[in-house]
Amino acid sequence: MRCEEIRELLPLHALGALEAGDAEAVRRHLASGCPGCAGELSSLAETQAAIPLALPSEEPSPMAKARLMAAIRKDAQATPQKVGTEGSIWARAGLAAAAAAIVVAFLTGSFVSRRYEAQTRDLREQVRSQKEELARLEQQVRRTRDTIMLVRSPGSRVIDLQGQEALAASAARVFWDVRKGTWRLYADNLPPAGAGKTYQLWLVTDKEKISAGVFDPDKEEESSGTVTVPPEAGTVVAAAVTPEPAGGSPQPTGAILLLGKI
After folding, report:
1. DSSP states of 118-184 as a string?
2. Minimal CA–CA distance to 260: which of 226, 219, 212?
3. What pLDDT does residue 83 have?
4. Per-chain mean pLDDT for the chain
5. Where do the structural domains in the chain lie, given as residue ranges?
């Protein structure tokens, strides 16, 4: 059996309520040295031992006592007294106690199982959240490392873009590796482009405007992309950002919102 199957049986195993085949399978698995299943069995045993201490003690009612004693006397009278009345009575009482113990064990097992499942769900949720946070941090570290490498590259240029007119409070900075043709943009106070719109970065030469790609300032990660400036296009003298239809345009169609000269 796999660990997942074994762990489903552990609450009943802790109560000794498993069938022989399942009990043997659990014992073999535990004997193999699985630390996870052994730890969970130990935790279940501790929880089971603490349950009686958490329950208030209750005294049966006089009527319940009278009925129980009447049933024991009736059973004793109906049973041959070969072993003695006292022995028969205590034997029947033992059987009744055993039956009661089985009921208690069943209820306790159900309680432990539910509590165990709830704790397992909580732990899995914590692990999932931690994994997501770790993945986010790892991605952030990679982006920071890539930015540092980009800034340190001998062929890199830094272009500061200032907001124009209505977006005067907005700004952006572009790191452009001329040799590799890669860029990374960090925007500040740039509002969403709007439904069906996107922002597009342009490299401007004295002859034409070259698309460097589109970006979305709403995303947590920094915007980046690649761009190739043909030799015949001339020297790049500025960078600009315009709003364009989703997917971008071959040439600018919107007003220049951010502009930076090189």
Report:
1. HHHHHHHHHHHHHHHHHHHHHHHHHHHHHHHHHHHSTTEEEEEEEE-GGGTT-EEEEEEETTTTEEE
2. 212
3. 43
4. 78
5. 1-56, 59-152, 156-261
What is the second-level CATH architecture of the domain 1-56? Orthogonal Bundle (1.10)
Q: How far apart are the first and last CA of the chain?
A: 67
Are the C-beta atoms of 242 and 253 separated by less than 8 Å? Answer: yes
Question: What confidence score (pLDDT) does residue 154 get?
Answer: 76
**For 261, phi and psi rounded to 5 degrees?**
-95, 150
Q: CA-CA distance, 30 to 44, in Å (whole number)?
A: 14
Backbone conformation region of residue 237, classed left if phi is above 0, alpha if psi is from -120 to 50, else beta: alpha
Residues 259, 167 contacting (CB under 8 angstroms): no
Q: Of 236, 238, 193, 196, give the one whose Cα is nearest residue 216.
A: 193
Average pLDDT over residues 83-112: 51
Q: Is the pTM of this model over 0.90?
A: no
